[in-house]
Specification:
The protein is mostly helical. The protein contains 21 helices and no strands.
Length: about 500
């Protein structure tokens, strides 16, 4: 029963993420077509650095992770009123703190921008963009809590629409600016604000209401759920790990490389996050409510089996995606971005970055499941402690790699960091939770992925010999299916898919 429900949930989430990532492609294609890989695009990307860090500082990326176990415990006990009281107390506290901190950052945005981006010449313009993006974070924060209420009821459809509406808002904003004769990062950022207000807040408020989760009057500010929430959220607030900060590295270290580096790293990472989102993130989001419910009900054996099964399945799909991304990075970048102001030289600069990022996809897949397994156990400090240690070790690596190898060094260090983090957290889980292990997945998956990569490369080389350019979309449509066929065939021979 759990396996079939988990599978259906994963399909819903992965479908929503796929559509969101496709809209994200459309957003980035429009962004690069109108602004190119130039300073204006760097400004757009940099505008979200401080706001995103505010979101992570408030454990924004983990609000649903910390709230779902609390609500799941009440639902498992059949006490829906207690769930609503807990939700009300946490929602009120988090929203108040988020609004207050946002106001302070809006007031002091200029010195913050000048401190974080000392090499940006147009700091006044970046400050204005940052202020708009800061307001969006309030809607993200409230919306994430409203999504948690739906996840706790194992409802996934409405939450998957949030990023769709958000990306659509950015696209419409950028298009509106172009139609008005002023294509600019401002148009994209204001469109994002509207998308966040509608998709991440208004739509999620409706979705939560449909599950019966409404705010209640008379709930004391010192409700026990607030302390319970803070006890789980505090490790996430204090220990910002390599995963939480991975999106910030291109912005922080790209400026050390030179003009256009931030935009190039951003574009490569966004492409890489398509399979990460569809495969890895979908698996983690879909599995978490089930893991939290199993933990709340004390069904330890089923929890361990679900974790291992989810890791095996997710990593298998992720390895196939990595084989395609690494071997066919050039045609992927050209197909996605080479329109308008984004030319062949930009493709040549971004493709190697995508190939380096692509190596991280299987590690992202395993990480998404293992961390949520720890969160379901309410053992927040373990993944946070490991992630923080890896982050501290990675920062000198980023600085050295950026200085010596440029943007490629930043991308490679990002991949190495997530790999180290995933291996460490996997070892920690299996030591703490005796039960089924990964077994032959550890050697079968790399072998099958390598075979698929060789097939993709061979098919691409054959197509190129006919006179096609190395980055031609035709190469992608030849190499991709070849990789998939070989992956399935070799996987079947080795028994990977049983």
């Amino acid at each position: 029963m759990i396996r079939s429900r988990l599978g259906r949930a994963a399909l819903v989430v992965s479908g929503g993420i796929l559509l969101s990532r496709l809209l994200g492609f459309g957003r980035n294609v429009l962004l690069y077509a109108l602004l190119g890989r130039e300073v204006a695009t760097d400004l757009y990307v940099d505008a979200f650095t401080i706001p995103d860090y505010l979101f992570f500082l408030m454990a924004g990326g983990y609000l649903s992770i910390t709230l779902v176990p609390i609500l799941s415990r009440h639902h498992a006990a059949g006490d829906d009123d207690a769930a609503r009281r807990s939700f009300t107390a946490v929602f009120r506290m988090v929203t108040t703190a988020l609004v207050a901190l946002t106001v302070v950052l809006v007031v002091f945005a200029r010195p913050l921008v000048e401190t974080v981006f000392p090499r940006i010449e147009d700091s006044a313009r970046l400050t204005d963009l940052t202020r708009v993006a800061l307001v969006s974070q309030v809607f993200f924060g409230m919306g994430t809590l409203l999504m948690a209420a739906q996840y706790a009821r194992q409802r996934f459809l409405i939450p998957t629409l949030a990023p769709l509406v958000y990306n659509l808002g950015i696209i419409l904003g950028g298009a509106a600016g172009a139609v008005a004769g002023n294509p600019s990062p401002e148009a994209f950022v204001w469109g994002g604000l509207v998308g966040a207000a509608v998709g991440n807040f208004a739509l999620q408020a409706w979705g939560a209401h449909r599950t019966g989760m409404t705010l209640m009057r008379g709930v004391p500010w010192r409700h026990e759920a607030v302390g319970e929430y803070l006890a789980m959220a505090l490790p996430l607030m204090v220990g910002q790990s390599v995963v939480a900060l991975d999106e910030q590295w291109p912005r922080l270290f790209g400026q050390l490389v030179g003009e256009g580096a931030t935009a190039g790293l951003y574009g490569a990472r966004q492409l890489n996050m398509l399979p990460v989102g569809v495969i890895a993130q979908a698996a983690g989001v879909a599995a978490y409510p089930f893991l939290a419910r199993l933990a709340a009900e004390g069904r330890d054996g089923e929890l361990r089996e679900t974790v291992v099964r989810s890791v095996r399945t997710t990593v298998a799909f992720a390895a196939a995606a990595a084989a395609v991304v690494v071997t066919l990075a050039g045609p992927i970048v050209r197909t996605a971005y080479q329109w308008g102001s984004f030319d062949a030289s930009d493709t040549a600069a971004v493709a190697p970055l995508l190939a380096l990022y692509g190596l991280s996809i299987p590690f992202w897949a395993a990480h998404q499941v293992y961390t949520r397994a720890f969160y379901a156990r309410r053992r927040m400090w373990v993944p946070v402690g490991i992630g923080t240690a890896v982050t501290l070790m990675s920062i000198p690596g980023f600085l050295l790699a950026a200085g010596r190898f440029g943007a490629a060094g930043v991308a490679l260090t990002s991949t190495v960091s997530i790999a180290l983090y995933t291996v460490a957290i996997a070892v920690s889980w299996h030591r703490a939770e005796p039960g089924p292990g990964l077994g032959d997945t550890l050697w079968k998956t790399p072998v099958v992925a390598a075979a698929a990569g060789v097939a993709a490369w061979g098919a691409a080389e054959a197509a190129i010999r006919t006179g096609l350019d190395t980055t031609s979309p035709v190469v992608l449509f030849v190499g991709g299916p070849a990789a998939l066929v070989v992956y399935l065939a070799v996987g079947r021979i080795l028994g990977q898919h049983r």
